[in-house]
Specification:
This protein is an alpha/beta fold. The protein is built from 27 helices and 20 strands.
Length: 648
């Protein structure tokens, strides 16, 4: 239901995964409407054909069978480096190129004609191209077992996951070693969901005793002394450097902005993720932030990064440990640059203890496969899967950008706040290193299933509910209601009655004929958004926002945090990537001339990796400005003096 308007057309390539059949056909050139409808109907009735269609629509993020009959899930859907890396590593880069598939910069308007066959936009291939890539993946993965592929590809820096069941994940040796699962009172259960370095070695979890305090009073941290009235937003005055991308990390940064922090969103000079991730999704995730794009290959940009870090209370990243070192943002480097800063890291596979898989790559969908979510959501025979494993089913996503990403962002915010509070209690001079991961949060979504799987009626694509009486019921017009019928009710007779009633009449039937039993209509997210667009609800509000950069966005108001019964919204609407560069640079102590010099040198990259909003057509200018500058960027006379100041 996210809507946005104002992006340049070449930066708004909303892929077919989010659109109607007509839009899919417009993007998926090379397939007729009747042909696609036939494939869809076959996929609904035959799980094997569903897997086939999944692979051919989205070949870089679909599950494939391996030589042992198990599923492997490659993950390169939105990432140019990973898509080209997979093709090269698996040895079919030449085949892909020969088929007319290219590798072009999606942020360059000249690449727009190649959008339907560009490895930088692997989710948007035309149908013949995606079929070709799927066939290449399909044949290659049959050469080895799923576990062999997972170890090999992760070692090569290519994210993937062996798809398995929740029970297999709970038994996973690495998950146990990482303490994602621990033994408590003789039972295996979930371990800690976030941790901080200065806490040292955490003690073993103990069974909760009824009536006991959750935290011993002698170990609870005292609150900081109150020197002023409470702020409306508790993080006012704190600065966050947000280097994160995709969803989980940016969602964390947005939550910290909701709490009042000044969040500098520092984007990469050459993004590997496509505009869908870096532009469209940020219509929600840039809310409350101040965005700047920096080309870290240039010394001037690295100086900007260092100034931002020195001003930061929290440095937020969703990077692997080796990436932190290469960026100079690991804990040891921060101790030199800004000892008091909190390093807040979101990872893929890590648990409380470090293991050989702790630095593996991954995305939300990959961890859905690893932790059993895909097996549970896809069509399968629960008995066969329990007996034979995940290979007996056909896995499917809970969502591409699911609750796993958002829960990870929330847990990261919680971990960062815990570390920040601890720093303040200790006197504010020594920072910490707070961590959470997709793996622990994907597991946390399944908290209620630690003692067993739900009934067959609650899994798979035909799921109805946890019991025969508390479930969704089909009604007239292809709609559904969720109802809680009394246990004494004849469910078959009730279902037959409801099938001929419209939604309102079906709900009235629960009220009048079943003793006031609860029933509600089943709605799509878009329908809920329409209902919540009038501002009448305090906790569910779908609203329109327009930022100074001209970006108009319609999305949900945040409700992560409530104070005195009211949720905190973001203090400012989202801005285009890089649009706040002048304000961010000024806050970091740069003069107007220095700001202009950084813009002209492209150490600070233009808005949306495209162009500055105030950049008019420029004429060549004869001046003592160095030839290297005038050759690349024609400088207008009105800016000459400021530019000289910046160069000096």
């Amino acid at each position: 239901c996210l809507k946005q308007r104002g992006l340049p057309p070449h930066l708004d390539p909303v892929p077919a995964i989010y659109k109607s059949t007509a839009d899919i056909l417009a993007k998926r050139r090379g397939i007729e409407p009747s042909e696609l409808d036939a494939y869809k109907q076959a996929a609904i009735s035959d799980p094997a054909k569903q897997a086939w269609l999944f692979q051919r629509l989205y070949p870089f993020m679909a599950p494939y069978k391996c030589s042992d009959g198990e599923w492997i899930l490659p993950m390169a859907t939105f990432n140019r480096r990973l898509a080209t890396g997979y093709c090269a590593y698996l040895g079919f880069a030449d085949d892909v190129s020969a088929f007319g598939i290219v590798d072009r910069d999606p942020y360059d308007p000249a690449s727009a004609p190649f959008d339907d066959r560009n490895l930088a936009l692997p989710i948007g291939f035309n149908f013949p191209s995606s079929c070709k890539v799927a066939e290449l993946f399909e044949a290659k993965f049959l050469e080895k077992t799923a576990l062999e592929w997972e170890a090999e590809l992760e070692a090569a820096g290519l994210p993937c996951a062996v798809i398995q069941t929740w029970e297999a994940w709970m038994r996973d040796p690495d998950a146990r070693a990482a303490r994602i699962f621990v033994e408590v009172g003789g039972e295996v259960q979930l371990g800690r969901a976030a941790w901080v370095k200065l806490a040292g070695e955490y003690p073993d979890l103990q069974p909760m005793v009824d009536g006991a305090a959750a935290v011993a009073r002698d170990r609870a941290a005292p609150p900081p002394a109150a020197t002023a009235p409470p702020r409306q937003r508790p993080l006012e005055g704190y600065v966050i450097c947000d280097f994160a991308n995709v969803i989980a990390g940016p969602a964390c940064g947005r939550m910290l902005a909701e709490l009042g922090a000044t969040v500098y969103k520092l984007g990469p000079g050459v993004p590997q993720h496509g505009p869908m991730v870096m532009m469209v999704w940020q219509a929600e995730l840039h809310q409350g932030k101040h965005s700047i794009i920096l080309d870290a290959k240039k010394a001037e940009a690295r100086e900007v990064i260092q100034r931002a870090i020195k001003a930061a209370d929290v440095v937020l990243l969703n990077k692997m440990d080796n990436q932190l070192v290469s960026l100079g943002l690991n804990r040891e480097a921060l101790d030199v640059a800004n000892r008091k800063a909190i390093l807040l890291q979101l990872k893929s596979h890590q648990g409380e203890r470090y293991t050989r898989k702790s630095n593996w790559n991954g995305y939300d969908p990959a961890l859905q496969g690893k932790t059993g979510l895909m097996t549970r959501f896809g069509p399968h025979d629960p008995a066969a899967v329990a007996r034979e494993g995940a290979g007996a089913g056909v896995p499917n996503f809970h969502g591409v950008a699911s609750c796993v990403d958002y829960l990870t962002g929330y847990m990261a915010a919680w971990a960062g706040l815990a570390a920040l509070y601890s720093r303040e209690v200790r006197g504010g001079e020594q920072g910490d290193w707070a961590v959470t991961s997709l793996a622990v949060c994907a597991s946390l979504t399944q908290l209620t299933l630690q003692r067993g799987e739900p009934p067959p009626s609650a899994v798979g694509h035909d799921a109805t509910g946890m019991t025969p009486h508390k479930r969704v019921f089909p009604v007239a017009g292809g709609r559904f209601v969720y109802g809680q019928a009394p246990e004494a009710c004849d469910v078959r007779e009730l279902a037959a009655t409801l099938s001929s009633l419209e939604s309102d009449a079906a709900i009235a039937h629960f009220e009048n004929a079943l003793g006031g039993a609860l029933a509600v209509p089943v709605l799509t997210v878009q329908e809920i958004a329409a209902l919540c667009s009038d501002g009448g609800s305090k906790t569910a509000n779908f609203s329109r926002k327009r930022g100074e950069s001209g970006w108009e966005v319609e999305t949900w108001e945040p409700t992560w945090f409530c104070f005195d019964g009211a949720p905190l919204s973001c203090a400012r609407p989202p801005a285009f990537a890089g649009a706040d560069a002048p304000q961010v640079l000024a806050a970091l102590g740069y003069s107007p001339g220095e700001v202009l010099g950084l813009k002209q040198s492209r150490a600070v990259v233009p808005t949306s990796w495209y162009a500055w909003a105030d950049e008019p057509p420029r004429e060549p200018l004869s001046s003592p400005v160095p030839p290297s500058v005038t050759a690349a960027h024609n400088v207008p006379a009105r800016d000459l003096e400021l530019l000289k100041e910046g160069l000096e």
